[in-house]
Amino acid sequence: xxxxxxxxxxxxxETGDTxxxxxxxxxxxxxxxxxxxxxxxxxNCRMCLVEVKSDRPMMLPILKFDENKKQxxxxxxxxxxxxxxxxAAEGMEVFLDKENVRKTQEMVQxxxxxxxxxxxxxCDQAGECKLQDYWELHGSKYKRKRxxxxxxxxxxxxxxxxxxxxxxxxxxxxxxxxxxxxxGDHVLDKRERGNKSEIVLSPGRYLDNKYTLNLAQICPVGxxxxxxxxxxxxxxxxxxxxxxxxxxATGCSSYIDYDPRTYEVYRIRARKNMGxxxxxxxxxxxxxxxxxxxxxxxxxxxxxxxxxxVSPGDALQAAAKALSExxxxxxxxxxxxxxxxxxxxxxxxxxxxxxxxxxxxxAAYGGWKGDKILRHSDNNPNRAGAIRVAGRGLAPTNELxxxxxxxxxxxxxxxGPAGEEKLDQLDxxxxxxxxxxxxxxxxxxxxxxxxxxxxxHYAEMDGTFVNAMKMEQRFSRAxxxxxxxxxxxxxxxxLARAMGKELECGSLEDIRKRMPSAQAVExxxxxx
Amino acid sequence: xxxxxxxxxxRYELNESWLLSTVEKHGAYEVARKALTTMKxxxxxxxxxxxxxxxxxxxxxxxxxxxxxxPKGNTKPxxxxxxxxxxxxxxxxxxxxxERDPHRLIEGCVIxxxxxxxxxxxxxxxxxxVKAIRRLEDAIEEARQKGFIGDRPFGKDHKIEIYVQPGAxxxxxxxxxxLLNSLEGNRGEPRLRPPFPAVEGAFRCPTIVNxxxxxxxxxxxxxxxxxxxxxxxxxxxxxxxxxxxxxxxxKNPGIYExxxxxxxxxxxxxxxxxxxYENRPLKAVIPGGSSTPVLRADDVVNAPxxxxxxxxxxxxxxxxxxxxxxxxxxxxxxxxxxxxxVMDNSVNMVEVARNLxxxxxxxxxxxxxxxxxxxxxxxxxxxxxxxxxxxxxxxRLLVEIANNIMGNTxxxxxxxxxxxxxxxxxxxYDEFLEAAKNGVPxxxxxxxxxxxxxxxxx
Lengths: 528, 458
Ligand SMILES: Cc1cc2nc3c(=O)[nH]c(=O)nc-3n(C[C@H](O)[C@H](O)[C@H](O)COP(=O)(O)O)c2cc1C
Ligand code: SF4
Ligand code: SF4
Ligand code: FES
Fold this sequence. Notes:
The complex is a heterodimer of chains A (528) and B (458). Helix content of chain A is 24%, strand content 22%. Chain A is α/β, with parallel strands linked by helices and 528 residues long.
């Protein structure tokens, strides 16, 4: 691999790499605002200027004050180049840690703050703002401009999801480029000139595409913020867990950001994964964090003559009792395209070893509108995984309803909140002697079940999803499950035990070892 | 007054000089006919190269060399974009060509397109120049009807079309890459280079961008041959004649055709007719548009070194150095558009700086941080200095800002605003110190307007 030198350190690069990209691959950050790995190069912030060694450097005329003569005399300086737009070349020597480069960064930094409101105390970006980070590193000076800053529109609603503050905006155009290049939606642009410039919506438009919340994430400052997250927390109070979005079969890599004091989840952010989602997620994915803590099943439910909320353990006992009274072959199991492969694997094992049934079904949502960017038309995160661990064909839930209707089955154990059918379509299940629902969230299944046993949400467990590209993606536990609630796979082992059978599953690792699998892709963290 | 032969402006004084019927009797399109019917494109390009004609738009890049930058083996269409945006303050030469002899420009386009292998030329004209736009459009129509442009110009199988594009009303649209963005219907913002326009310009195809005067000179170059044209100049490597402009405190402001290499003294005192008021001597000249650093009338050349490019003028006044791209660079300024702004001793140089920086702060496209923020910051500082709210540190700060804009931006606008600021402070430091103490009496912002602009950040 060819290399160049950055402050004397060898940096390998690939053909086509710019200096900043090659350095960033080595984990070295050249200060930048407008450059983003996933977008075209705009080269407008000028924060990334570096010196490149040359035998005949281009010299620029400037002035220097001569303290003896008490006047300005001509001087010259070496022209710097933008690291974001300069291709790396074999043997090139680049200097970042040099007085002239630092001075230039300081000046750019100072200029960006001239008209900035510096309202960090009420800004959501505080704590993860490049202006703050670089001020510490390259500025830390008081403002030298003595006139009133430019005033521009504040709190402009760009749509239902994003608010724009033109005074905080540094005009890096990341947002414009994102909409144009990633979404293909020319909804944002710049108006006016000079320091009156601001980002505006196209006439007659709102920011209403499916990817708007990425803007809150890629805006390097607090100019674009999420309506949902606004004023709810401070970035430094949150911890991030690496996860996978459960919104659809694409399986975008994500972070779940929660407050470690309360375990309240505040947002989901996109996590870099070049093989799947690059740097982005869709708005439904971003907002899916709400399902982690809303519409949850936290207690067991037993529906006899009248509905009773009971402890998870009591619900489990009730389920075991009901299922024990029915011939195993007449009990159907419904795997879930929303649950982790581990959960589905143990349920399949339960079906084989405890029930001995042949009746396997798969509950999956009915799909949503996909696109060519990220959104897969299958809005289930783990259809492929459930099918893979079942090791056999899985019938759709409408056949489950037929089987219930014509009496071929007497009971069913369902995993997950719901399948394709709405609640009123599930009437045939009322005929069964037992409907045991294992679910983390309220759904059609929990509403129709005779016994509901709460289980952990995917954010509350270690697990695996297999996406539409057949990639096995591991996610890790972000939060503890509610009191006395366990992941479904453990709950099923408990259920078997209550029915007098010991499932020889072993640990999570053992389960995983037995899952028919390709190479699993371990979740890894990476910020941009 | 010196009498120089007229080549580019020879038809200016004819009655209805913008009509084809008028100028055809005076040689219009003779050269285009000869070039398209008897010459090879390479031959034309070779003549232009030998003519040593430096671009007339400001940067002074040799046109023949630029034409050679179109990639060898290129298979994409090649375009010619003629820069008629003429936005540089103090500059008013291109409009005279477009208004008074549009056919000279069109003939130049035809020859140039043939030479560079292009079929389409866009003439991008500053939108305020309504008369120029109308005359060009009429002239194109006349030329088309005569068969000078169209599918077979002069019977030659080389299709040529010329379009006039009114500009977007911004100084920055005169910067070549910004012009191309604007031409394509996008926001007029400069592009990152490389790629340079000759490699990837309009519609991502190789494009030659040349100034109106540069292209208007092509027919005379081809008529007399590159060598003869080059010899018209008084300087080496900077050939031909050009249209000088002079404005400000002179008796006869206007445009004058003269060889490259006349001195500023000739321009001001001979062509310009001398200073306007007997009792107000020359103080300073902005030599070629607002972006070129000022010359002081009382500065003398200090080039003792044998190898110094200015050694021949050692000890002479700056006004006596010939006006050429290289000589003026050596002098610490630029020739720019060759349209001089003359200032007598009634002018306060801090007010000049303030006036100029208002223009730049207003016209910065706003992409680059240093230009966008620095221009307005300098404007605020100069406003303060003029209205008596300045401090001594402000002068140093002004220099620090300009030093830091220099070379750190996407396009040359940043340099074009820093250079004149640095030039003014360097050469008239006393006046800036005085302004820091007492303001600038008589400046629109001094005296009475003091409070009016207080707190103006916008
Ligand atoms: C801010 C800025 C404004 C400019 N405006 C003009 C202009 O109005 N007309 C022009 O011919 N060149 C202008 N130029 C120079 C052009 O970028 C370009 O160099 C020129 O058109 C090339 O033509 P030439 O080589 O024939 O001079 C400008 C440059 C800058 C940086
Ligand atoms: S809103 Fe944010 S991303 Fe968009 S230009 Fe402004 S600072 Fe950049
Ligand atoms: S230097 Fe100024 S005018 Fe040129 S691109 Fe940058 S901001 Fe725009
Ligand atoms: S990162 Fe903004 S100019 Fe390079």
